[in-house]
Amino acid sequence: MKTYQEHLSQFLGYLTQTKYGQDPKELYDPIDYMMQLGGKRLRPVLCLMGYELFDNRTENALPAALAIEVFHNFTLVHDDIMDNAPLRRGKPTVYQKWNMPVAILVGDLMMIKAVDFLRASQSKQINAMLDVFLTTAREVCEGQQLDMNFEVQENVSIDAYIEMITLKTAVLLGASLKIGALAANASLAQANHLYEFGKNIGIAFQIQDDLLDCFGNHSNTGKQVGGDIAANKKTLLYIELMASVHKDDLQQLLTLREEQNTEVKINETLKLYEKYQIQSFAELQKKHYLDKAMHHLTNLDIQSDALQMLKATALDLMERIA
Length: 322
Fold this sequence. Notes:
Elements: H1 4-16, H2 25-35, H3 42-52, H4 62-83, E1 87-88, E2 91-92, H5 94-97, H6 100-119, H7 126-152, H8 158-183, H9 188-215, H10 218-221, H11 227-230, H12 236-244, H13 247-257, H14 262-275, H15 278-298, H16 305-320
Antiparallel strand pairs: 1-2
């Protein structure tokens, strides 16, 4: 049984040995650059942990774990273009360091390479793994489009928001675990329980992120207090506030959306969050999805230290971002 750090070390060792191609270097150098920028590497580690539940030879799952991480980084390359983001993990984004046409092409190639890496997996269930991967890739694109739609959409429901974060973020966590399990020749039922565990953990993570933006310890996160409020982002908290406010407060809230003084905008909106107990609402939603995730773990019917390690890892990650 490996710890999170041991899985991470194994994956990073494999990553440093990976070659993506050489010529033309203007195409392959940016891939090397992007893949070495760092990050939590949560998704490939979850893939390895899903595999270890059924087989301790986790080296066999490394190609699948790499496929997932390459795909994730492909989405980041294109996200940075869409967001006009100059930095990624403190370094220039690919389109800033090279240019936008190169970054678009690099992202396209990373998607292709991800499929190639996944096909290299030695598993009897490779077709099922590819089905999960390609379905998830489509869903991530759908989630990104929904997120962009919300920027111009006047009203967004809680259900629509949950669907968006599920597609944009959570399904890839579920797929990481499911692909790992399938690589180890787990049954479809077992793999599906792992998928639902990862997906619901992912939803809880995003709700936690929404909470941290307004109520977290910002000396730890290094983020601006109320950054989502300043950007008029329709988070779970803001959507619930819009649905809860009385008539007089609604007018104030709509006025605050146009407020140019960022400090006033954030502070006055936070007062409304407190008045309508929005933090408590979001905490309950987070707990709901955490409970759903843990329910699927209990349905796995596996008694192993690796299962307890997976559960502890999820809870530890939730605490660490708190």
